[in-house]
Amino acid sequence: xxxxxxxxxxxxxxxxxxxxxxxxxxxxxxxxxxxxxxxxxxxxxxxxxxxxxxxxxxxxxxxxxxxxxxxxxxxxxxxxxxxxxxxxxxxxxxxxxxxxxxxxxxxxxxxxxxxxxxxxxxxxxxxxxxxxxxxxxxxxxxxxxxxxxxxxxxxxxxxxxxxxxxxxxxxxxxxxxxxxxxxxxxxxxxxxxxxxxxxxxxxxxxxxxxxxxxxxxxxxxxxxxxxxxxxxxxxxxxxxxxxxxxxxxxxxxxxxxxxxxxxxxxxxxxxxxxxxxxxxxxxxxxxxxxxxxxxxxxxxxxxxx
Length: 305
Ligand code: ADP
Ligand code: MG
Known about the structure:
By secondary structure, the protein is an alpha+beta fold. Helices cover 28% and strands 25% of the residues. A seven-stranded mixed β-sheet has the order 6-8-5-9-7-10-11, with helices on both faces. Strands 1-4-2-3 form a four-stranded mixed β-sheet. Strand 2, helix 3 (93-110) and strand 3 form a beta-alpha-beta unit.
């Protein structure tokens, strides 16, 4: 087993048209005619973004999906991706086979193909990085900036499952049917939901709803007022109870979308979105409970440093 054999056996079958069978120094990508490219990269480090015993196929799918979530937030359609794998010396071929099988499954599910990458060894834990390339109509990438006072604050899906899933895997809360752990290990990128036709600003929620909403507000020069009681929770998160509410609102790993939608466009939104509040003048993110009392959090979300 050497580097080139690994690439040929496990990554070459994933290569798309621009990938030149992974036999050249670089990929050659013809952008779809008349479209702009949207590029994003996200890294995942073993022990930081996933747990050492997480199955390699799920790690691969999460790596692809967290990037697809960024493309989804920008209203982009997936096109291709580049992949860097730094694996501890001595990593078995079975790891690469499982990792590539996970990618193959999600490539088919999401219509994206591998363009190239790099494979190295590392003295540390696994370090993975994926660059996703998508495309949008010219001028139609949805930005973080753009929310206006009076726009609704909307989210896709349910919030908090990923953060609770991590804690469930660690044994800190029950997760009888594994629903929370599943959401942590396998996010669902919300492709196709955010469209410039009805969304003024958007981002994906990866580091905690409250903190990420702060980013959206800062980019737009606005504040926001949201009601904790309106934040959509899954049945499993409801079952966890109020004691876990702060974790849901600030924990991260949601990979849902946070959207600013003008009131007149609310009726055009696809199903599966929930309005949790309103963008307001100012620069503050206010979270209130069902009784209108202000909730404050030690931290609004995750930060690596
Ligand atoms: P370089 O000499 O530039 O480092 P490599 O020998 O690393 O090139 O890569 C050879 C080919 O294999 C290139 O086309 C590269 O894009 C591809 N490749 C290497 N590792 C990966 C990977 N993890 N995923 C996809 N393609 C890869
Ligand atoms: Mg290389």
